[in-house]
Amino acid sequence: MEQQNTAEMQIFERFVQTHVSRRTLFKAAGAAGAGLMLAQAGLLREVAAADDTIQQILDITVTVEHFGVTFLGTGIDNIKQGKFSKPVPAPVLAVLEAARAQEQFHIEFFRQAGGKPLTTSFTLPDPALATDYDKFFKAIVDEETRETALGIAAMNVFTAMRRPDLVKVMFQYAAEESEHRLLANYALGTRPANDKGFAPALYANASDIVAELRRLGIIGGSGPAITYPGPGQIDPTNVIERVPGGVVINCTAATPAPMPGLPNTGAGGGTQSRSGALGLLGLGAAAAGALALRQRRATSAAPVDES
């Protein structure tokens, strides 16, 4: 396992040093979680350094996740101290503990990718948000809806940049936040808890969520201050999939295989298809990444986008 992680990092370092094009395939279906997280976070750092928009998205995402950890921690602490308007069942409390840990894992990944929080101190526009059962869970529903919309806005940006690798990571983030909304809806008593056919796309730009949090009095408001990480310990016991797994880079659709008896006129199509198959079969990032580099050298006569 250690040798595999070392090999993966060597592939990543070669990626950075040689500015491998967006056509390069870097499959990671069988990679270890820690090495895969470092590779994906490192790639995000590289592209963020060259694009202010990506850096802004990372900073905003880290900021709202700091609020999530802090707000949930404040509510959990009040529940445990018996300060809530009505008792919270133990299974619901366990869900809240897991959700807080999940938000912390988001922070760790996006900070590893270079995100810097705009603030780690927040304000409650209504103090009862952290003590009233209905207000607390409604606030979670609203915030998770906003965070999912942030993910959608970021995906729009990454799609326009032709960066499906970044779209993939942001989808994994937004999908998990949408699950939080569902669980909070269920605890609130909304039936059906999954009450939307599609997640609403609230924002034209990722920065719109910060403007809304300011308008709501969550950032820079006059209410009681809550500061990251909030009270109590973060409990990750019930959380798996703690880093975004899957493909690190796959920015080129494989060229269809030629029909029998016809020449293959697609540059590198067959090779790319083989790399895709290797990824699906579970070869690690190191092996598939090395293959991708060999493919690039072998097909150097084909046009390569080095941007």
Task: Note the topology.
Elements: H1 2-18, E1 25-26, H2 33-50, H3 52-80, H4 90-112, E2 121-123, H5 133-160, H6 164-188, H7 208-216, E3 225-227, E4 249-250, H8 269-280, H9 285-298
Helix pairs in contact: 1-2, 1-9, 2-3, 2-4, 3-4, 3-5, 4-6, 5-6, 8-9
Briefly summarize what is shown:
It is built from 9 helices and 4 strands. It is mostly helical and 307 residues long. The protein folds into 2 domains: 1-31 and 246-255 and 266-301, no CATH class; 45-243, Ferritin (Up-down Bundle), CATH 1.20.1260.
The H-and-E topology, N to C, reads as HEHHHEHHHEEHH
CATH topology value of the largest domain: Ferritin
Question: In whole angstroms, how far apart are the ends?
Answer: 33 Å
Percent range for β-strand residues = under 5%
The low-pLDDT segments are: 14-33, 262-307
Q: What is the mean predicted local confidence, pLDDT?
A: 78
Estimated structural class: mainly alpha
Q: Estimate percent helicity.
A: 55-70%
Overall CATH class of the largest domain: Mainly Alpha
Strand order of the largest sheet: 1-4
- Sheet with the most strands? 2 strands, antiparallel
Number of helices: 9
